[in-house]
Amino acid sequence: MVNWNGDIAKLSLPTPFAVGDVNVYIVKGDALTLIDTGVKTVQSKEALNAGLGELGLQLSDIEQIILTHHHPDHAGALDFFDKKVPVYGHKNNQRWLTLSDEFLDTHNSFFLDFAGKLGVAEELKHRLTHDKEEIQFLSKRNMQAHLAEGDELPGLPGWRVIETPGHAQSHVSFYRESDGLMIAGDHLLARISPNPLMEPPLIVGGVRQRPLLQYNASLQKLLDFPISKVYSGHGGEIDGEKVSDLIRSRFERQHNRAMQVKSMLQEKPLTGFEVCQRLFPKVYRQEVDLTLSETVGQLDYLEDLGEIELEMQSGVILYSSATTVSKGIIY
Ligand SMILES: [Zn+2]
User: Fold this and answer.
1) Residue-wise pLDDT tens digits, 170-193
2) For the purposes of burial, counting CB atoms within 10 Å of the CB of 322, is it exposed (0-12), middle (13-18) or buried (19 or more)?
3) Which domains does the chain have, with CATH numbers?
4) What's the gap in Å between 186 CA and the centre of ligand 1?
5) Distances (CA, A) of 330 to 303, 309, 326, 327
6) Ligand 1 centre distance from Cα of residue 171 (Å)
7) Distance from the alpha carbon of residue 309 to the mean position of ligand 1, in angstroms
8) How far is the CA of 219 from the centre of ligand 1 (A)?
9) Mind listing the pLDDT tens digit for each residue in 259-311?
């Protein structure tokens, strides 16, 4: 059942991913806007058409598309829409929407290099890279214009952009001051913490981002806004009164998980991959990309707090607890 809630309607669309359905939003304004598209599958298109139908609309009524981030469940189905329909989003979406050979090469060499430094088993390294052929559920598209912090959304007066990088380097959320509504994509979800996914540096050859630290800063940022309700990319809405408690409990949980990693490293120094194997013994093989992102997030967090130290040994980073570092001879 799809209904208008004021000028917003939520459509839940199926995805082939473990996360389940994704929420996209129709927002009425000067332009009828779709926020996120769902994934590019026949099933999703059917559900989108059916949902729009319940509102008395069809695909061709959508006048513009605004993206929270570039992931395939959010931006994958741009191909369903006429090329004349303008698409807006953060500038960091574009490399994923262009998906040039050059970007893929850069992406793959970054991950192979970083996997080496993390000590990832040779047979799993290729799981961190992408072949053009294997990439599905994405659409190629040029954005009409880029959205940045504080911008008012085109066609939606009163809605402003909050940059919320972490889960994705392209991630933005939208906030309307007049009624405190927030459309937060995957930045804040009622039931799950989004994975701080690793991405290649934004500048080729540059320093990699530390997505969990970015994510925490972006979560902290939400505490400054009086929020009445959060519409999320997956699952139900979050009541504004619960937002700050939810954020604080997420910080606490995150800190506790990191401290578990620190206690592992107090026993002995480990590579990133060894930490990953210990944290996710059952799934690290099948989901090496996701589990490694989580692991690197914890290690970045601990490094930032000064709780651990890093040492390069034959091209591999060895992580150790800062309090038990052996006071070896300094040459
Ligand atoms: Zn996502």
Assistant:
1) 999 999 999 999 999 999 999 999
2) middle
3) 4-98+135-236 (3.60.15.10), 261-324 (1.10.10.10)
4) 6
5) 22, 16, 11, 8
6) 8
7) 31
8) 15
9) 999 999 999 999 999 999 999 999 999 999 999 999 999 999 999 999 999 99
